[in-house]
Amino acid sequence: MSVRITAVGLAVAGAIALGSAAFAQSVPSQFVVSGKAAEQIQDFTTINLATAERIAETCEKLAADQGVAISMYVLDNDGNHVYMDRMDGQAYLNVITAEMKARTALMQRAPSKTNMNRVITDPTTELQQIQLGLFPNSGGLPVVVNKQLIGVIGVGGSAPRVPAWSDEICGHKALEAVIGPSVAPLVQDIPRPPNPNPGTTPVPRFAAATAPKTTVSNPEWVVGGKGAANIYDGNQISLAAAKKIARVCRDFATSKGGTMSLYIIDTAGVFVHAERMDGQQFNNIRTALLKAQTSLKTHVPTSVYGAQGKNNPAGLTRIIDQYGFFTNSGGIPIVVDGQLIGAIGVGGGAGGGDENCAIEGLRATFGDHVTLPVYPVATTAAAGTAAR
After folding, report:
1. Rounded CA gap, 276 and 84, in Å?
2. Do residue 169 and residue 251 come from a single domain?
């Protein structure tokens, strides 16, 4: 009898599992990771790179048409980075708040504006929201297809002009363009009440008299014009250059039958561009970031420390623990015409090696102007000297 019950139970469980799988896969495949990549991450309901890229690029075009810049994050339904762009001239707060909005939408399964409206209605709720890790500001939106959450987006960096423009409006229009008319309508805006205790303290204006100039030969490789003036830096890698590096690296990984995760950061360590190819897991994403950060701190490729660790394992503990470096190859400082303009980190194998993937992207973008790792051929004399 127990055997029969067990068999029936297994059959029911199997039917439920199949039903769940069927529902999960009811999301059109063009929006989510599918096939072997989905099997690899055991999830057929997570937004894919192609969709994330289309959403981001659509919002960026809308922003450019408005004469403003934005920062944008696309996270999957587990909170991992899938795609990220920072348009030229965006500063740290613009970038970090975009991610905070996305994570708020993910935790709430609702637009981050709902949190903002709650605070406007009752300011005493703001502290509790912050304690819970929420960011009560508009610009974070869930990405829902066929009633399935496949990811979230967060947009930051531009001043609102509701109802004509805002970070949220940019993201919502991009979702409608990519996902379609099934995207939920925007939550109603609640006007902010006037400040009951307005201060009269004068606020200083802080702006440079002249825009900074770059020292690299091609001004398209770095942030320029108003963007450079906004961040007081003429030698930070531009979004256009970062995206070209990423595209070449992505194509390299694909040609080798592999995938990769990639981060490109500026000279201050702020994200410029990030992407995760389908099938990549958290450890691939995390190591790519650690490699970029290590190369920026040290101004050398992470492969330097990997080699030094093999030559002198006793020194590896200090490098990893006390200095906080990540020594796997794949991180390279981006040095163009002798000037540091950012750093890149690639993780996940990339089919033909993480460092090789980064090198392909750097070489295709900057040609002979970029500094790349050089591996000297070990000679017998040099090996003997090293032994002594």
Report:
1. 9
2. no
